[in-house]
Design brief:
Layout (H helix, E strand, L loop, with lengths): L3 E3 H10 L4 H7 L7 E3 L5 E7 L4 E6 L2 E6 L5 E7 L3 E6 L5 E6 L4 E6 L5 E6 L4 H5 L1
Antiparallel strand pairs: 1-2, 3-4, 4-5, 5-6, 7-8, 8-9, 9-10
């Protein structure tokens, strides 16, 4: 993906988190309505916190946080090494990100970015949690 995150992509992900995702996917047409600079580096999976309108993106150097209301981007909200997945833990303020380079997962608070634990996963943690 380019140096920008497409709001159209984000909105398609927001739609996929609703109860009508299958209906929307079959009939919706998406278009880019705005671009927000997001910095260099690759990305894999994203998570959308629809309650707070925040998007979390796994990037090469960590977890990027994008506030959709303010358009503020925090590049390394949580440091990481080749982060592939960012997963919310339902019913908690916690998230888990996978670090492919160090074969670990990072447990962190989605509001503050405070790291709670680094968990050894074995080789290929992105394949183990999905």
């Amino acid at each position: 993906m380019s140096k920008r995150i497409s709001i159209g992509l984000v909105m398609s992900c927001v739609l996929s988190t609703t109860g009508h995702a299958a209906d929307h996917a079959a009939t919706a047409t998406f278009r880019v309505i705005e671009r927000i600079p997001g910095g260099d580096g690759g990305n894999d999976y994203i998570s959308v916190d629809s309650a707070t309108h925040v998007v979390f993106v796994g990037r090469t150097t960590g977890v990027m946080k994008l506030d959709l209301q303010t358009r503020k981007v925090t590049m390394d909200f949580v440091k990481g090494e080749d982060v592939a997945s960012v997963l919310p833990i339902p019913g908690t303020p916690l998230m888990l990100s996978t670090n492919g380079e160090s074969n670990t997962a990072t447990l962190f608070d989605r509001n503050s970015g405070a790291v709670k634990a680094h968990i050894p996963t074995g080789q290929g943690p992105e394949r183990r949690v999905l």
